[in-house]
Amino acid sequence: MAGGPSTPQLAAAVSDAGGLGFLAAGYKTAEQVASGIEAVRAATSSPYGVNLFLVSHFEPDLDAVHAYRRSLEPEAASLGAELGAPRWDDDEWQAKVELVLDTRPDVVSFTFGCPTPELLRRMAERGIHTTVTVTTVAEAREAAARGAASLAVQGPEAGGHRGTWDQAAEPDSIPLLDLLSAVHRAVDVPVVAGGGVATAADVAAVLEHGAVAAQVGTAYLLAEEAGTNPVHRAALADPAFRETAVTRAYTGRWARGLANRFMADHQDAPAGYPHVHHVTAPLRAAAVAAGDPQVAHLWSGTGHARARSVPAGEITRALVSR
Ligand SMILES: Cc1cc2nc3c(=O)[nH]c(=O)nc-3n(C[C@H](O)[C@H](O)[C@H](O)COP(=O)(O)O)c2cc1C
Q1: Catalytic activity annotated for this protein (predicted)?
Q2: End-to-end CA distance of the chain, in Å?
Q3: Is 256 a member of any domain?
Q4: What SS3 string covers 203-259?
Q5: Model confidence pLDDT, tens digit, residues 273-301
Q6: CA of 266 to the centre of ligand 1 (A)
Q7: Of ligand 1's atoms, which has the minimum distance to the CA of residue 219?
């Protein structure tokens, strides 16, 4: 969970409890990821994973992005923030690839796209298990054909960004268990499933539908070891935030979060990741600094009411206690 919630301590605590903790590489410099890997290694000798963003080049409708930026100016002014400039970047892809080839985490997962067969093979040769996030049967077939060792099927219930490879595509809304069954039938590689999985019964359901493991994000957002910011934590604990919704308003890419005023006001936001992400980043930081949950992004899946403020090990054990 890039953007703060995932910390080395969270990953280590999950792995120590018998899960597979992940370090989020997204939005960080390769140097910061290297320090994070060292911190995980210092905290645990259990297996762990690193998650990379694979951001394909995308040409948004720049007029639409600039128009959207202008529409946000009053919003930014009221928080004393200056909006960022829209631009593309690749999240330091090459440097992070070199880093994981060098440090060899047990698992490397990818979201927003699929590496080439050559890169997947290079990772396998280094003993790294690769997992590619997929949101459709077509993506699943392609990732398996390219040589992904396993797939992470992400359903529409999931918190945070949809991992859809084509960011301009409208995301599918086939529920996780149906998507999982379809993917399981279509491919020959192990499948992990996530999206709204927050209880032991949810974990059992994905295992019964063919998954070898469950992927869980939102249920850990309030974990003691998570780096979730105070505004996000307070909103998750606030019964007034009852609904989640999907939005492009924060980053130009569809993502699910607790429904707030900003999402309702900017339903017409254009596609354009990471351009829009760079535009709104200072506004979001100012909203967090001001303690404003109606402007800050509050990524959460549909299982958010189940998140608990306890140690991550306890959350992990509860997810498999039946
Ligand atoms: C706050 C937050 C941040 C996330 N960041 C990432 C990320 O950096 N990389 C990624 O592959 N998935 C990310 N996800 C999605 C998760 O990998 C996963 O699909 C999702 O959390 C599963 O659904 P759940 O949130 O309902 O448990 C994020 C999810 C949340 C809630």
Answers
A1: 3 propionate 3-nitronate + 3 O2 + H2O = 3 3-oxopropanoate + 2 nitrate + nitrite + H2O2 + 3 H(+)
A2: 26
A3: no
A4: HHHHHHCCCCEEECCHHHCCCCCCCCCHHHHHHHHCCCCCCEEEECCCCCCCEEEEC
A5: 999 999 999 999 999 999 999 999 999 99
A6: 22
A7: 27
Nearest-angstrom CA–CA distance, 181 and 208: 10
Task: Report CA(74)–ligand 1 centroid distance (Å).
Answer: 30
- pLDDT band at 232; cut points 50, 70, 90: very high
Q: Tell me the C-alpha to C-alpha distance, in Å, between residue 242 and each of 1, 17, 136, 228, 305.
A: 21, 30, 28, 19, 8
CATH number, position 166: 3.20.20.70
Domain presence at residue 178: yes
How far is C-alpha 241 from the geometric centre of its chain's CA atoms?
20
Q: Is residue 60, in this structure, part of any structural domain at all?
A: no
81-117 pLDDT tens trace: 999 999 999 999 999 999 999 999 999 999 999 999 9
Q: Measure 162 CA to ligand 1 centroid, in angstroms.
A: 8
Q: What is the pLDDT of residue 172?
A: 87
Q: Using the structure block, give the residue that is written with the tokens 């140690």.
A: 311
User: In this structure, is residue 10 part of a structural domain?
Assistant: yes
Domain that holds residue 43: 1-55+90-227
